[in-house]
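ENTRY TYPE: paired fold submission
RECORD: A
CONTENT: sequence, then structure tokens
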Amino acid sequence: MHSAYIGFGSNIGDRLDYIQNALHSLSVVEGICLKSVSSIYRTEPVGNEEQDDFLNGVVSLETSLSPHTLLHIVKNIEISIGRQHRTHWGPREIDMDILIYDDLCLQTPNLTIPHPEMHLRRFVLTPLAEIASNLTHPVFNKSILSLLYSLKDEKAVVKDVSYSVNITSCL
């Protein structure tokens, strides 16, 4: 089995419902076992800042699937949930990205692991540090917590206790 971490977020409509549906869909895929889900964080948008705040988090999982198969599953879940591609860094119903897959370093036209911008994003590192603070970034050879502490990104990332995700998994 392989360990992987997937970041997720939504900033359109019933954001929590999109997130819960996406995580539930992921939890029922053969070859995927959800291990833990971070708290939900309310985050300011990055890039295109003229849009609503996001709800973001990270899920850890074990999988027998290859990285490319996992990517295919994740993108199909986004489509099934109702994701519509608008503009780059624009609003979205659901977004799911593979952040880390074991200690793999991979760069193909369709997939880069670890995620190439995760070390620059507080909205990724904060929930990832919550569930895997000692996880080592395979390129920088630093812990997630260390990357978070050295981060220059000052966008607001606030744990939102009014939201929680309930998923069925193989814990």
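RECORD: B
CONTENT: sequence, then structure tokens
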Amino acid sequence: MFDYKQPYVLNPSAPADSLEAKRPAFDNGTTVLDPSRYYSREFMEKEWRHLWPRVWLLAGVTSDVPEEGDYTVFDIGAESVITVRQANGSLKSFFNVCPHRGNPIALNERGSVSKFTCAFHAWSFCLDGKLECITDEQTFHPDLVRHRPGLSEVRTDTIGGLIFVNLDGKAPPLADWIGLPKGYIENYEIDKMHVVRHVRTEWRANWKTGLDAFIETYHLAFIHPQTQTVMEDFSQYDLYPNGFQRMIVPLCVKSHRVADQTTVDAGLQFMMQDAGMKPDEFNGTASEVRPAVQRSKRERAKRLGLKHYEKFTDGQLTDSWATGFFPNTQIGMHPEGVFIMRFIPHPTNPELYFYDNMTLFRNVDDPTYFVPAWMGLPKDTDVSGRTRPNIERFAAGVRADLGEVLDQDVDLVEAVQRGVRSRGFRGPLWSEQEMRLRHVHSEIDRYINGEK
């Protein structure tokens, strides 16, 4: 079982150097935080000054910019950033603003160009940000343009197919800042996956209220009771330096709260189908499904020549390694695909945020190989990777087709946001099942208080 002195460990026999091993505890204290952090404009403004410019932010994925001139745009607050593939294969990022009058250079969320041209007065810039041409330059006083005003560069770096940017340019090197062990992200080969769906919905809550709901499984049995026959809601929680964290959520098992631990019901049969198995030919019990799925996935990977499966523990083949990238991203990690969630603050309203999620899939020409069904892809989704879908955008109050579980989360998060304003709520009382929340908020406060 799970108590505050003996946290849940999924695999007690995992070697200490295994990525699956339980991490040593962090002492983040037991302080009850002021709930105004979830709705105060003052706290929001402190975040804009002290947090967002100083951290590395997930700006996109490398598969979106495969060729020279391919670019993608990332917006956060008042800032917009272009990341573009260079002739030598590297990536450069720039503030999406023309130095002449401040007009955005890129007007689309992504595209491919040989140069950037401002739509306002047709100033043009090379892919490396250097000024190429000023329209009617002879009409400018030479002192104004002698410095050859190019696009302002934004610090950028990548790891394992993920693109990060740092707005003030003062963060430690990305490899030092990411608190995860070497190989943790790279083993999934996200650079070989493609975005097959991208949805951005506006939720009536603070971004931290949203994030909090997604980085614990304490609520599963009560908000998502339909998950009880396919996943355990006791998860292994692990904390890493610099606010990074994860939870390993056991899938293809029943929750310990379910009395019948023997019958292989419809949920587990569905999980077996997901792994290319034939449930009607399975003669085992519910407790035998998880190892059977793991064996099936290994056999399928070997048949398909997917060598990266050799890097994974058995648990990684079934379970969700929901990994938190400080401050505002969680990625559900699977060998077949990943589910990226970004909790993007609203530029001006502390009680709105954008839930931005990208589903990436490594397409294989085999009908039994598909992105995990829990990711909720609509049935008609093109998973070939040949065409990058546009972002599906939904305003607050408009339901997107996110699936039953996420629809339940929308209702939950917006209700919690109303509750944190109550005089009867004096601050969150986090258990050890919510240690990831305390870890993230403690790191946020280090930035806010000038300790980082």
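NOTES ON RECORD B: The CA atoms of residues 226 and 397 lie 24 Å apart. The radius of gyration is 23 Å.
STATUS: closed
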